[in-house]
Amino acid sequence: MLSIGEFSKICGVSTKTLRYYDEIGLINPDEINPETGYRYYSIRQLKKMLFINRLKSYHFSLEEIKAILELEDDQSSEKLCSALNRKIREIQEKLNAFEYSLKQMSNDILNLEKGIPIMSYLDNIEVQLVETQPMNILYMRQMMSSDDYVAGYEKYFSRLYEKIATEELTLLGTPMTIYHSPEYNPAGNDTEFAIPIEETVKETRDLPGGLCAKSVLKGSYSELTSVYAKLREWVENEGYELVKSPYEVYVTDPNQATVPEDIVTEVYFPVEKK
Amino acid sequence: MLSIGEFSKICGVSTKTLRYYDEIGLINPDEINPETGYRYYSIRQLKKMLFINRLKSYHFSLEEIKAILELEDDQSSEKLCSALNRKIREIQEKLNAFEYSLKQMSNDILNLEKGIPIMSYLDNIEVQLVETQPMNILYMRQMMSSDDYVAGYEKYFSRLYEKIATEELTLLGTPMTIYHSPEYNPAGNDTEFAIPIEETVKETRDLPGGLCAKSVLKGSYSELTSVYAKLREWVENEGYELVKSPYEVYVTDPNQATVPEDIVTEVYFPVEKK
DNA sequence: AGTTGACTTTGCCCTTAGGGTAAGGTGTTT
DNA sequence: AAACACCTTACCCTAAGGGCAAAGTCAACT
User: Fold this and answer.
1) In terms of Cα–Cα distance, which of B184, B204, B194 is closest to B142?
2) CA separation for the pair A124, A118 (Å, rounded)
3) Is A25's Cβ below 8 Å from some Cβ in B?
């Protein structure tokens, strides 16, 4: 039997960590002296501890590790595989987010070197008042958490396009998203993916036209929050109020764009004079 | 002037967050009613708030953002650039770490599908007792934090190789690392990078030979911690004790390896019978 | 047997970036 | 004046431990 200090040195984990793992039931000492409370570990526990470290290096949380260890008892390598696959997808997404940040930061640096302040694009956001025409849209409405927006857009728009292709419907515009949640909530937003088409089928509905505050963004989607802010500011300043759900129209295909400025997005706020 | 709720809606940030940012001095309301304590924001603060959000999306901590905002006052785009560049490098490192995890996990899944348990490599770690010969090594000794090990190895070994090349010294072996810190400390370890050579010059020293417990790892460096654990276990079990700093010899060049099993690393624990 | 020093125990406070909730005060509308 | 929306502070919570302190325990040395 090894004292906590000895076991700690062998597996390269601090005693504090071992005590914490004992507390949360991740790995308990083989034996505890009931009089003194001293923890004693068996060398057979080394393997488990090293396994925990390995899972930690894969960015599993201790809670996830605990779950894996519990199902590990019944030697089911399938569940372990699926846990690994889930984590791979999760890490892949974070990786994508990091790469996106890197691109954005590099872009900012290029601009700064040209003497363009980072937030200068804000002054170029123009708001105009327009009258929109009603549209017939093929739609899918979904609760979307902010995590799966990137994957979600791909998924739902490709489903809609598939439907248009298989049912030989007539495209009348580019894809759009309508945000029905009154306020932005990272946990989940009532989001409608839509594409205007000519035919009226079961999954279409009418998107009424009317007075709208409109802004056009030529740049990365990450600047959309600023566009929304500017629109809200304008609506407030000019004495209007938002009367229906705002929506975005993706005029260009982001996959075709070589520089962020090639991406064109229109944002509409249906408004009425207060 | 906007109440906290209005400002919150315009910039898409919760009131809770705005109060928190006020508390830590990141962005304070333009005006506070001294009687009621009500916070009032000016629309001119929108730009700052959106800038904060942008920096947050680049994974800056609020502390870092605060520092950037403070130096932003004197319009120095240089410092902002250098902060962005630092963050780019930081994110790049995390990205590398993620990619490494992804590779490892994929490897584990492949093994699992072949019926090989993840931790089975532990049973293949063999320890032998050997007598090493003294060596003459060209060395550089450095405190290394666990974050910059990856970059550090490249850096210091290439410096040593450069010296060997320019001074026309004679290589007698592959690179090695000697760990002088008695215990592993993530904050910083006293680490010696060394390459055995023939000539005795100012930056060489004698690495004494002697009795060693030795293990050979054929696999990824992330399994090294397990090798250390196994060595410590063996030393304990067989009644030896560690009497000098342990060291690793990198027999193969990891950049030449196509599969992790091609990477060969020897780990030595200089020991004496207790 | 006593002492010293190394080791271990529990307990408490600290970290990030806020979220949730409660009790009570304020502003606006009916 | 009441109702209701909005605002305030205050307190507790998160993950994965680190740091420190007071007190108990273990092994070795005198």
Assistant:
1) B194
2) 12
3) no
